[in-house]
């Protein structure tokens, strides 16, 4: 099984240099839609197959919908059949952070934006090669920039 939470010393150093975005709930509510706030700040989940980016097949960059940080690229996206946009690798090791999530009686690994801490989705060890990982993201947590 792939290790979903390990980091290299270089990655830890890069994370130290990344400038974090901190805002109050009131500030986030001004910037995000109610759905985005619920998902990104309260760790919600959109219904499967409801997000507009699930079936997006355009070339481009997927960014954090809260802070605009680059998270994933279209060449690492795949159709997992799960109903959420799925990727097998983030844009860089320091773009996201992984956290143990034992909510709802399940044991999962939550994925958050390393820049602003927004909840993006979860990562599972059932993805395609070469990583074997499936980063299952909420469409509402992502902004797509077509290239």
UniProtKB/TrEMBL annotation:
<feature type="binding site">
    <location>
        <position position="64"/>
    </location>
    <ligand>
        <name>Zn(2+)</name>
    </ligand>
</feature>
<dbReference type="GO" id="GO:0008270">
    <property type="term" value="F:zinc ion binding"/>
</dbReference>
<dbReference type="InterPro" id="IPR011057">
    <property type="entry name" value="Mss4-like_sf"/>
</dbReference>
<dbReference type="InterPro" id="IPR028427">
    <property type="entry name" value="Met_Sox_Rdtase_MsrB"/>
</dbReference>
<feature type="binding site">
    <location>
        <position position="116"/>
    </location>
    <ligand>
        <name>Zn(2+)</name>
    </ligand>
</feature>
<protein>
    <recommendedName>
        <fullName>Peptide methionine sulfoxide reductase MsrB</fullName>
        <ecNumber>1.8.4.12</ecNumber>
    </recommendedName>
</protein>
<dbReference type="Pfam" id="PF01641">
    <property type="entry name" value="SelR"/>
</dbReference>
<feature type="active site" description="Nucleophile">
    <location>
        <position position="136"/>
    </location>
</feature>
<keyword id="KW-0560">Oxidoreductase</keyword>
<feature type="region of interest" description="Disordered">
    <location>
        <begin position="1"/>
        <end position="27"/>
    </location>
</feature>
<dbReference type="InterPro" id="IPR002579">
    <property type="entry name" value="Met_Sox_Rdtase_MsrB_dom"/>
</dbReference>
<feature type="domain" description="MsrB">
    <location>
        <begin position="25"/>
        <end position="147"/>
    </location>
</feature>
<feature type="compositionally biased region" description="Basic and acidic residues">
    <location>
        <begin position="12"/>
        <end position="27"/>
    </location>
</feature>
<keyword id="KW-0862">Zinc</keyword>
<feature type="compositionally biased region" description="Polar residues">
    <location>
        <begin position="1"/>
        <end position="11"/>
    </location>
</feature>
<feature type="binding site">
    <location>
        <position position="113"/>
    </location>
    <ligand>
        <name>Zn(2+)</name>
    </ligand>
</feature>
<comment type="similarity">
    <text>Belongs to the MsrB Met sulfoxide reductase family.</text>
</comment>
<dbReference type="GO" id="GO:0030091">
    <property type="term" value="P:protein repair"/>
</dbReference>
<keyword id="KW-0479">Metal-binding</keyword>
<feature type="binding site">
    <location>
        <position position="67"/>
    </location>
    <ligand>
        <name>Zn(2+)</name>
    </ligand>
</feature>
<dbReference type="GO" id="GO:0006979">
    <property type="term" value="P:response to oxidative stress"/>
</dbReference>
<dbReference type="GO" id="GO:0005737">
    <property type="term" value="C:cytoplasm"/>
</dbReference>
<dbReference type="GO" id="GO:0033743">
    <property type="term" value="F:peptide-methionine (R)-S-oxide reductase activity"/>
</dbReference>
């Amino acid at each position: 099984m792939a290790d979903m939470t390990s980091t290299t010393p270089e990655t830890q150093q890069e994370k130290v240099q990344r400038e974090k975005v901190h805002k109050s709930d009131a500030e986030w509510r001004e910037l995000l839609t109610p759905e985005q706030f619920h998902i990104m700040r309260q760790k919600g989940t959109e219904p499967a197959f409801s997000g507009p980016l699930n079936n997006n097949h355009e070339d481009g960059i997927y960014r954090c919908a809260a802070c605009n940080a680059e998270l994933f690229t279209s060449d690492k996206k795949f159709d997992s059949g799960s109903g959420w946009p799925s990727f097998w690798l983030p844009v860089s090791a320091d773009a996201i952070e992984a956290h143990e999530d034992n909510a709802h009686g399940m044991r999962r690994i939550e994925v958050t934006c390393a820049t602003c801490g927004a909840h993006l989705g979860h990562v599972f060890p059932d993805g395609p090669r070469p990583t074997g990982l499936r980063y299952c993201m909420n469409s509402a947590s992502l902004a797509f920039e077509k290239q």
